[in-house]
Each structure stands twice: as C-alpha cells, then as structure tokens.
Give the backbone structure.
Amino acid sequence: MDIKEVQEEIISEFDILGDDKESTIFYIMELGGNLDAFPEEQKTEENIIKGCQSKVWLTASEEDGKVHFHADSNTDITKGLISLLIRVLSGRKPSEIAYADLYFIDKIGMGSIIGSQRSNGLAAMIKQMKLYALAFDAKLNAGI
Amino acid sequence: MSLNIEKLRGLFPILHQEVHGKPLVYFDNAATTQKPQAVIDALTGYYQHDNANIHRGAHALADRSTQYFESTREAVRDFIHAKEAAEIILTKGTTESINLVAATFGRKFIGEGDEIIISTLEHHSNIVPWQMLCQENGAILKVIPINDAGEIEYDEFLKLLSKRTKLVSIVHASNALGTINPVKEIIAKAHEVGARVLLDGAQSTSHLTVDVQALDCDFLAFSAHKLYGPTGLGVLYGKREILESMPPYQGGGEMIKEVSFDGTTYNEIPFKFEAGTPNIGDVIAFKKALDFIQDLGKDAIKAHEDELLQYAAEQLSEIKGFIPVGVAKDKVSVLSFCINGMHPFDVGVMLDARGIAVRTGHHCTQPLMKRLGLEGTVRASFAVYNTKSEIDVLADAVQKIARIKNK
C-alpha cells in the first residue's frame, strides 16, 4: 500500500468509531500497545523530540533505501499517535516520507481529540521524522 | 447557613453546556474560576454606557468611570481588610504583583549576601522573579523544605531565618496540592528578624478569609480571575510605609506628579505604581465578583468547598490505583492525584472526553514535582458552584480509567 492508501485505511477505521471521543481515545491507546519494544538505552536526551509535552523518543535507521522508525513515549495516547505515524511512514523511501502529505491527521479530527498543545507535539514528531528522511535522502544521493 | 447551590449555578451561564456530548463538569477552578452573569453584565455595561479614561477627564463619563473604578479599589480594601484604599495597587495579576515587589522593593532593599526565603510549594511566579533578582544583585534564595504530605517543615523555616533574611515570600495556599501554610506564625517569626513578608494569595483569597491586618503581612498578591472576576487583573496590597519607601515600578502617565525635562516627581500611592491607562472595564466588573463572594460569605463558601473536598477524597480513595498527592491536614479544595501506571496527560484527555475539565501536568511547580518524584499530577479543584453529583461523575470516570491499568 502506498502512503495514501494507508491513510485512507486509517480514516475508515476512525470513521467506524464515530463521534464518541472516549472510544476514539481508547482505540488510540490500544494502538500504542502495538508499538515494537523500544530499547531503554536509547531513551536518551539526544533522541527526545523537542516540543512535545510528554516525552517522545524517536530513532531512525535505513536499510536497502528504506527508512525505518522506532519510537516510544511515556504516555499511552502519544504512543498511539506515534504508532499511526509509523504505520504511514515507516519502511518507505526517504523522498516519499519527506514530501508526504499527512492529511489523515485532520480527517480523523485529531486536533479536537488531543487539544492544541498536543497538536504542536504531533507536528514536532512529524517534523523530526521528515528531517530524518531528508538526511537519509541526502546520504543516499551522495552515494555514501 | 448552607448555600443553595442549584440557584447559585444559575448565575453562571457557562456551566450550562455540553462538552463532547456530555454535561460540562468544571473542576479547573484553581486555574481560573467561571464568572457570574453580574460580572459579565458589568463588563459589557461599562463599554455600553460608561467608557472613558479615568482620573483626568473633565466630563460626566470620565467622572462616572473614575468613581466606579475607585469603588472597586475600596471593595478590594474591604475584602482583605486593609487599612486604606491607597494600599491597594491594581496590577495585571499575581505574577505582576510579585514582579513589582521584586523590581522595586527588591532592588532597593535587598542587596548582595541578603537572603530571600521561599518554600518548595511555590508556583514558578514566586520563584523566578526572586531568582532574577538574586542573579542581578547577588542575594541568596533559600527554600523551606516540605514533608511527604506536602506541608512545609516549619522547624526548617526557623533554621533558615536570620538577620540576613530580608524577605519571606511564601504561598498562602498551594495551587498544586492545596496545602494551607501557617502564614500567621511565619509572618510573626519573620518580623522578629526584621524581614518583610509577601503572601502569594492567588489560591487562598477565593477560599479563605484573608485579613491583612490580622495576619500583619507586608505584601499580599492575588488575581481577580481566580475570584470569579475578569482575567488580566490582579492586586498588590502593601503597607503604606513600605509602598511609600519603594521606587516606582514603571514610568509613564498617571504615576507622576510633575514632569519636566530636568526631572520628574512621582505621584502618591497607589498611583505611583499604576503607570498608564489601567484595565478599567475589568476593574469595574471585578467589584461584582467581590460582591458575589461577600454576599455568599467566605465561611459558607469554605464550608461547602470543604464538604466537596472531603467527599471527593472519600469517593476517589476507594478506587484501585488512585494515589492522592498532597495530604496536608489543612487544605483548600484542591485534589491532586495520580493513577498507578498512567500518565496524568492521558488521564486528563480521558476525563475531558467525559466532559470533565481538570488540569494535568506540573501546575507551574516543577521544583515541587521534583521533590515529590513526579512528572505531574491530575488536579481537580472545586469552587462554590460545584456539586457532589459532579464529583460522582468524576469518581465514576476515574474508576473506569484506572481499571485500564489496575485490574
């Protein structure tokens, strides 16, 4: 599936939940539980995303021209949000990630679910993922 | 006499709404209280009928505005039982009131090697202005420790006091935990060594009777918006002789007696500290908030809020995974807590989904959170318009949320 198809899939999943905020949050928290275990030793100051109210650690690696993200947070809702971003962006070419239009966030009404402060945090997460992608893109193009 | 809460709720239009499809339960009163219709009407009424700049205009509207503005100052005087209205300076809020003292009294009377005492319970706005002053003039900041219940260690305070102490700046009631400090004793002891005392009354003035003469505090800072009044408005009370000895805060209109290019003489208190056109509309509306409180009576308000706090503590403490934070013997109606295994942010978002407004996080008291070994708490804070049935809604929600991690 391409980035658009994954986003459409997420939008339809959230559609099923309807307008009930509580069930939406429970669902997001459940999604957070599916994140791969994040190594404790990588929970360093360096890997923390600045601008998030809760703590978020993010690392990225590149294999065969694809970027893979790993992340964790100390709050379950944030973990759920990260898991959605990873589902959409991880395992793709750097250029795809860097220029991805992540419209699903607005479509599933994330802003009203998590509030404006957390929305800033979410934007910071996306920015960091795209920065990683750009860095890998530059590295691949340079043939290093 | 007990209050008719249902009737009283009718005075607050904002309370009667749904949030995320659920009736609003507003438990974020320590952050700001809601405003009764009389305050809202006074604010719009001012702009509809009376708007004019105060103190200088030679016309009817200016006279009227000045009269209403000054009648709020008198109402504030009465509210905290100050000797005279001139001791009431109107500011932007508690934060500005404290900064005003730091910038004027602090710069003039606190020097290198002098000491300022605060406590672990302080809000950032009663920490940072003193840190800034200490950086500037080489004074030393001393901090009274607390016990695990969230009460200051009074004996440690006595040990910190010395001839070098110039100021004790302490919170009357903690915003994060609700702890009420023994301020009368603290003030008396501080005065014995010749130190002045500033009380941060942001949280206490809405719940407790605060009588500045009985307490004998030198300064009292508080905000209108936590007292059912408008935002952007606060009070600094100071004893006349101290205020008179302090240099002005900001330069501009209103604060002067005479200006020439050779020099300027300053106005009398309180105007010396009120440069520029003040927040006239909000000041005028604030009187209605004070009237609202005085009509109900502080004792009746306190009795109702104490009942709510006790009921909430009972209901929530039965929930598996509920961890109360701050269990001081003497508290205002603030209930801080954590849920085992859950981040306070997540709890806050889930409560919001049920229409319950609480505050989560460090509550601008990061050193206190560090002392307690916590990143933050969930804080439910009650005002006079809250009810036991709202607490039932909270308890029911917390029970459901806690169950996720505490089966």
In short: Residues 3-141 of chain A form a domain with the Sufe protein. Chain: A fold (CATH 3.90.1010.10). The mean pLDDT of chain A is 90. Residues 110-141 of chain A form the longest helix (32 residues). Chain A has one domain: 3-141.
